[in-house]
Design goal:
This protein is of the alpha+beta class. Helices cover about 45% and strands about 15% of the residues. The chain starts with 6 loop residues before the first helix and ends in a 26-residue tail after the last helix.
């Protein structure tokens, strides 16, 4: 694997882009799960930055409290303020709390783990997971990274992007995967076509030789980052036939139901009336500040409306139509906002 390409080298001459900040974030992102510490040499190899640049950045991050330094080993480790950033991110994504009971129920029903992930450069990182009472245990924990290019989660994420965003992702993956890229690109293209036809993406022993997985993208209506939901397990249990006949449709239904619930959550009381954040309107990022009571009322209204209108209840979510057919407010924005 090649050293990770620094963002400032991709931006070129952009006066709004702060290269020093991007390089500092590269340093923090170089630490991996299960590693206690790294030296400047390790960080230079992983980021592709010069040793002198790494030395200045690690010193600065130590002074700001984001890195801890061990003078006996001359190595650095992540400090608690970095952890607080992660928890702030998770707590700010209200969709995770809404999705939790749904993925737990599906994991128990299917007997395989169900998880939610978002993109981190050339990887997907788990944000929430449910193993289920009878689930076969895989190495799925919040914070674990898996490959963007060969996992069902990553392929679903890519399938939900605009053409311009997809090409940017492909450029990063081509650099990251090197000589394997042509074969990997073919697999991604196959799954993009499958998503357009069936509403989900697969990874059949591509990520790991004995693991099959299915994933469905979720595109928030509030402009937040695109997420992906997946169910994966041993290939002898989660067969392609079972995915097609049972697991795939149930995962699509789960994400579609979540889509409908969160769309109702954009109905917030304004004065004596109700302001709708949806088609053609800019939904606020601070939707999560709605009180629990108001969200309860909104969800109750959504359930009542759904019961009163079987056609609306049974209609497939716009999320799972081909991107070109989806309503404007639930498509990935062409500007790149929220595309990860």
């Amino acid at each position: 694997m090649r050293p990770r390409k620094s963002l400032d080298s991709e931006e070129g001459p952009n006066s709004a882009f702060v290269s020093a900040l991007a390089r500092g974030l590269d340093i923090l992102g170089a630490f991996r799960r299960g590693e206690s510490s790294l030296g400047n040499k390790d960080l230079a190899e992983r980021t592709g930055l010069s040793k002198s640049t790494v030395s200045r950045l690690t010193y600065t991050l130590q002074r700001t409290g984001h890195l801890s330094y061990d003078p006996l080993t001359s190595r650095y480790s992540l400090a608690p303020p970095v952890l607080s950033l992660g928890f702030s991110c998770l707590s700010g994504m209200s969709v995770l709390a809404l999705a939790r009971p749904k993925i737990e129920a599906l994991a128990n029903e299917i007997g395989a783990p169900v998880a939610i992930a978002g993109r981190d450069r050339t990887s997907m990182v788990y944000l929430e997971c449910a193993k289920g009472s009878n689930a076969v245990i895989l190495a799925i924990e919040v914070g674990v990274h898996i490959k963007l290019a060969t996992s069902a989660l990553g392929r679903a994420y890519i399938a939900a992007q605009s053409e311009r965003q997809r090409e940017e992702i492909f450029a990063a993956l081509a650099d990251h995967e090197a000589e394997r890229w042509p074969e990997i690109r073919q697999g991604i293209d196959t799954e993009i076509a499958r998503y357009r036809e069936l509403g989900y993406c697969l990874s059949l022993r591509d990520w790991k030789p004995d693991v099959n997985s299915v994933a469905v993208p979720y595109i928030p209506g509030d402009g937040g980052p695109v997420l992906a939901f997946n169910c994966g397990g041993p290939s002898q249990i989660l067969t392609e036939e079972r995915i097609r006949d049972e697991v795939g449709p149930k995962l699509i239904a789960l994400v579609g139901d979540l889509d409908r619930v969160t769309r109702w959550a954009y109905l917030l009381p304004v004065g004596a009336g109700v302001r709708v954040f949806g088609a053609g309107a800019a939904a606020p990022r601070a939707v999560g500040v709605a009180t629990t009571a108001s969200l309860r009322r909104v969800r109750g209204a959504a359930a009542t409306a759904s019961a009163a209108s079987p056609a609306a209840r049974d209609a497939p979510s716009a999320l799972h139509r081909p991107p070109s057919a989806a309503p404007r407010w639930c498509r990935a924005p062409p500007s790149g906002r929220g595309g990860g």
